[in-house]
Amino acid sequence: MIKLFCIPGGAASATAYLPWTKLLDRDIRLCLLEVPGRGLRRNEESLKTMDAVADDLFNNLKSQLKEDDEYMILGYCFGAVAGYELYRRIEASGIKLPFRAYFCASDPPDGNTYKTSIFSDRNREEELQETLKRYFHPALFRNEEELDSFVQKYTSLCYQNYETFGKVISIKPTELFADYEEHKDEYYDRCKALDFANHTMDLLDIDQKIVQTYQNGENEYFKIQTPVTVFAGNRDTMTTLDAVKGWERVSGDKFDLRVIDGGHLILIDGYQNCIPIINEIVQNYKETGRD
User: Fold this and answer.
1) Residue 133 belongs to what domain range?
2) Contact 265/259 with Cβ under 8 angstroms?
3) In order along the chain (291 residues), what is the average pLDDT of each group of 10 residues?
4) Fewer CB in a 10 Å sphere around the end CB: N or C, the chain?
């Protein structure tokens, strides 16, 4: 059995990877590396630095790893940069290295895509809207048009607040629904969606600041000695293909770039195209003992 340790993207939960179990090779075991403050660990306090996140990921990985286990690591967006720092800790510890590392829809650790907030770039608003829409259960809204209207107005207010105050501020029901005070009961379900959206934006702000501080700091970047596969969406406006190609700078062994049809959410919308690649890599490794 080969273990695949998966790190979520900014503000997301590692449980987003659970649908992968339907398509992963039967010899691959999905292992989640949840980050404090969300998903399975929502009640824990969110971490504030990349060092703290990477240390937590390493301890989590060690708790699920046996001495002779063969394994891989995978990180998406924010989780890719965190995965790079996780690899640093794995190598420093002296434990067996993963035989493959996957990074997806992410600027490399020494890049600059994350040096500014997503809320300071209106060109990234559409991708943020698409991300939010994936988080809401359809039952919370009467139809697709109502969901679209909610998300568009919500993200617009987020951008306005950031432009005015320089930070993310929770949106109130009265800002979204003009007749909220007169019809509170009718807005109960949509207010649950609003609470979730506010919580998600808080986490996204925290994760952005973690990477901003990291990329604006003085870091000793190293080359990963494990073969690296990088997934990129050909329609990703949050992280461009040119930016993703930068992972080759920190890849000391084999560098394998796979461009998948989709936007920034290719591990959600396009995972069906990514998993066969992972399955093939594992099969080749099992047959040859090499990656």
Assistant:
1) 118-212
2) no
3) 96 93 96 93 94 98 95 97 98 96 95 79 85 79 90 94 92 94 90 89 91 90 97 89 94 94 85 95 88 60
4) N
